[in-house]
Amino acid sequence: MKQPLKLCYAPLEGITDTKFRVIHASLFSDVDHYYAPFVSPTHDSPFVEKEYSALRPENNPGVTGLVPQVLVNQPDLMLDSAERLGKLGYKEVNLNVGCPSGTVVSKKKGAGFLGEPDMLDRFFDTVFSDPLFRDGNMKLSVKTRLGLFDPAEFDDILAIYNRYPISEVILHPRVRTEMYRGTPHTELLAKIVSECVHPLCYSGDIFTVDDWNALSALLPEDREISLMLGRGAVANPGLFTEIRTGKPLDKAQFAVFTEALMQDACTRLSGERHILFRLKELWGYFIVMFCEPAVYAKRLRKATTLSEFRSAAESVFLHCEIKEHAGFVGNANLKNVP
Fold it and tell me: Pick from 229, 281, 242, 274: which is nearest to 258 by CA?
């Protein structure tokens, strides 16, 4: 089985926050880089203390290779952000040109930036002309989609990327209008791998080891890529190790992980309603890893107190085994669980 060069944890806004990263890193291994959910500074509102706090190294103990992600479309904002992040000790910043949110795209940010190739080209020209990036004091990687409407748009987008010393291209092979629907355009992967002059990291619908094996079979024999896991890693926090070593998710370790997240929610959030919302969101991912969990998923979904929720969660681990070859499926929620 071909191995990824690196294994990276994708940023999921509202899920993989600072405490989630720290708890995951304390219990699971084989993650080379964690990527933080994006910050979106503007001229009127640069980094605020909450964003700094989430990225401070002392607040991320044990989190390997944390990479901050920035959502901007103006070079001066990228340069200012990179300078600020450099003062926190970071040597790499990731540009998000993949976010498909309508509010983001309408501002020509995220995936919306891909619809402005001349503007994107000028952005990189300015950024890489600055001594901070030109002299190698800071690296710039890019998390991208194929385009706005048509995968063919990526020919011109990749030509822009190839002109600049980008440290890595992280590719989610869908266009913006597809959001996360349908299947990624993996049929284009071999062509993109052969034409991209930068290290390439794949991101998109890798939920199991079998998914990775199927993807790696599409690669040319002489090329290796890195792999970024997102929703699949939330559902199966041991997926990195399973891909790297073949060792499946350990149920006892999984139980410790979910309990730690519950304790964190109880400590940080105010009021049972907010705590339960957080826990039900997380368990919408976790529940797919178990055999025949429907009755317990219903109990988790209908719980109105923490004690009811805790009892239901404990019952899952008591009565359900980890399902072989399980992984994230569809929308993450506790409804309609088979």
Answer: 281
pLDDT tens across 91-137, in order? 999 999 999 999 999 999 999 999 999 999 999 999 999 999 999 99
Strand partners, 265: none
Give the β-pairing of 200-203 and 33-34.
unpaired
Judge whether 171 and 164 are in contact, CB under 8 Å: no
Compute CA distances 32 → 35, 240, 273, whole Å. 10, 10, 35
CA dist 19 and 264 (Å) reads 7
Question: What is the C-alpha end-to-end distance of the chain, expressed in Å?
Answer: 31
Q: Which amino acid is at 12?
A: L
Residue type, 163: R
Q: Are 314 and 265 in contact (CB under 8 A)?
A: no
Rounded CA-CA distance 13/24 in Å is 16
The one-character DSSP state at 110 is G
pLDDT in tens, 221-260: 888 999 999 999 999 999 999 999 999 999 999 999 999 9
